[in-house]
Amino acid sequence: MLWRPLCPARAWSAAGLLTCSMLAASAPAEPSEPAPPADAVTETVQVLKAGAAGDLKLDVRGQGRDRVRVAIRNTSVKRLNVVLPPGLVAASAIGQARPGGGFQSMGLGSISNPPGAFGEFQDRSRGAGFQSVAPDDVGVNTVIVPAGQTVEMSVPAVCLNFGLPTPTSRDRFELVDVDDYTRDPRARKALRTLATTGTSHGVAQAAAWRVFNHVPFELMLARASKVVNVHEMALASRLVQALDTSPEGDRIDPASLTESRVFVRIQGDCPLADEAKRLAGELGGLHLLGLPVRVVGDDEIPNALAPALYLKVTLTGSQKGETRGRLLVLVSLASPAEDWSPLGKTTFIEGSSVSVLDGPGLARALDRALASAFVGVTTDRRGPRSTTLRVENRLPFSLARVMIKPSGSSGSVAVPFTGVGIGPARAGQVSIEAPGGTVDRVTLTGL
């Protein structure tokens, strides 16, 4: 996988190339097997426990700086549903050190991740303006392994030993729980959080290096700018801060990573000032781009302690059947030298007159305006049956979900691409069975 470093001054006008083909997802292909008898039972097992019991044989090998190759052989007589819990580490085995030093140990993400993504992605796709899904609405890493057969998979991973050589297919790992890999409770909590809170690989890698190896972010930017960019490091910094402020537990509360990420101020050109005030009251507590909204007053300047968006919404006119407005978007990386900086501006139209427009309706209009203005889609290549689209992310958070509306038919329904994990100032690819497409809506992760 290749990354292209970004100059901070051009970070929002360019994107590092990050291949993220939805057709090439890393979920394993289950081997074919005869139809099981009617009374056959599939037993669910945890990968490490089943391995220790002798029901599974594992072969875990290096596959570069961002993936690990895992082969699971079912040595039992049963069909097994193998669970890979969050917090697994591919640890470099004793006795395999290379001349001059060992090789990287790797923290594992989700087997369902496409290239460029890391961890399970919560479903925040129930529509703009609605409450987000509960934190426990997270998928489980499982794979079916028929009796006597082997399943191989390529699992996203982050390096846990900054500066050591990158593992290759010659390097064999031992699969262990993070609790057995390190005594550091912060490192344990960080890896489990990353594995259960979807983000981009760059964010996960920056956080892992900072927590496991205490590497300064400035050193990462100087020595590993092809792997992580400045915006991903800012998001990783937020996760590291949350490690020390979150309640006790084996992972960070996902809600703490999404709070105070989107600030909105609403005003209206006369005579729309009263309607703007009403809509501001209705917008509070809803969600934009999958993140909770905090409404600020006209004289208030938001204080962002982490990467955040500040939306200045101005209602400019209304007539029967529609409401028009302007949208100025500011961004902050929450670094010592960073203040609110312009990200861009756009306009929006909502198909309801302002007198009947409500908070959820305004949220939907802002969602679509932000998605179309700050997430770009261009045609990369066309095939006989599908088109590969390049998706560029200019927002300061990783994309969890992208809704693409196919071109070529006015009645086309938007197609969802979930768990894409395209980081800020990065680009990825999705494939669609249409001549092309446009962005309809997106959902962000907060990381």
Main β-sheet: number of strands, strand sense, barrel status?
6 strands, antiparallel, barrel
Q: Tell me, what's the shape? A: globular
Rounded to the nearest angstrom, the distance between the terminal CA atoms is 21 Å
Total beta-strand segments: 24
Provide the β-strand percentage band: 25-35%
- Uncertain ranges: 1-26, 94-101, 124-139
Note the total helix count: 8
Order the strands across the largest sheet as they lie in space. 3-4-10-7-6-11
Q: Would you give an account of this structure?
A:
Helix 4 crosses helix 6. Strand 19 and strand 20 form a beta hairpin. With 447 residues, the protein is an alpha+beta fold. The protein folds into two domains: 38-250, no CATH class; 257-371. The protein is built from eight helices and 24 strands. The protein has a six-stranded antiparallel β-barrel with strand order 3-4-10-7-6-11. 19% of the residues lie in helices and 34% in strands.
Fold topology:
Elements: E1 16-17, E2 42-46, H1 47-53, E3 56-62, E4 67-74, E5 79-83, E6 88-92, E7 106-108, E8 117-118, E9 142-145, E10 150-159, E11 172-177, H2 178-181, H3 185-196, E12 199-200, H4 201-213, H5 217-223, H6 230-245, E13 262-268, H7 273-283, E14 287-288, E15 291-295, E16 308-319, E17 322-332, E18 341-350, H8 359-374, E19 375-382, E20 387-393, E21 399-406, E22 415-422, E23 426-432, E24 437-444
Parallel strand pairs: 1-23, 2-5, 13-15, 13-16
Antiparallel strand pairs: 3-4, 3-11, 4-10, 5-9, 6-7, 6-11, 7-10, 8-12, 14-15, 16-17, 17-18, 19-20, 20-23, 21-22, 21-24
Helix pairs in contact: 3-4, 4-6, 7-8
